[in-house]
Amino acid sequence: MKNIEIKKWPKKRKFTAIAGIMILLISVFIIYPIEMVKANFVSDFVNTYLGLAVALLLLMLGLMGKYFVQGLSFMLISTIFGFTLIAVSVEFGAILGFIIGIPSGVIAGMLFLVINFYFLKDVKRYRLPTQIISYCIILCIVSFLFYHGGDWIYDITQYFNNKS
Predict the structure, then answer these.
(1) 123: which DSSP letter?
(2) What kind and span of H or E run contains 81?
(3) Which residues cross the membrane (predicted)?
(4) Which of 29, 79, 77 is nearest to 52 (CA)?
């Protein structure tokens, strides 16, 4: 991903990135509110999840270009690592590994790819240990937030509402 300037991108890459952004916006602002009215469970958001997955893949393809397969394999390894981290460290690990580990692995992988590109690309000495340590820290933070409740944003807002 050496050329980040959009002017230098091929037309296919621009089109793919724009399509990913459009699918993401449609999924978040149109499909999600429609499904939210009808949904009783998280598993009822099938079209939202499908739209987000397609948008993620198209954005990765558009932004990463020829490095798409490397990014996709990193996301797969991150998902497996997140599942394994939760599965071996928690009671009822296999169940929680699917519920917590897989999403935390995907989110940690996406965050790491962004942080690696913007902040760690200029590191000359100890690049690999720095990347490994930063990925482990990101994965631990994301897994901690997922494990200790999906309603942590609600808890924080309630804390500040009760404090004032």
Answers:
(1) -
(2) helix 68-89
(3) 15-34, 46-64, 71-89, 95-120, 132-150
(4) 29
pTM for the full predicted model: 0.70
Domain boundaries, the chain: 6-163
Burial label, 33 (beta-carbon count in 10 A; 0-12, 13-18, 19+) = exposed
| Alpha carbon 115 to chain centroid, angstroms | 12
CA dist., res. 27 & res. 18, Å (int): 14
**Comparing 16-20, 23-27, 159-163, which segment has the lowest mean pLDDT?**
159-163
E strand or H helix that includes residue 62: helix 46-64
Compute φ and ψ for 135, nearest 5 degrees: -65, -45
Q: How far apart, in whole angstroms, are the C-alpha atoms of residue 80 and residue 26?
A: 29
What interhelical angle do 127-147 and 102-118 show, nearest 10? 140
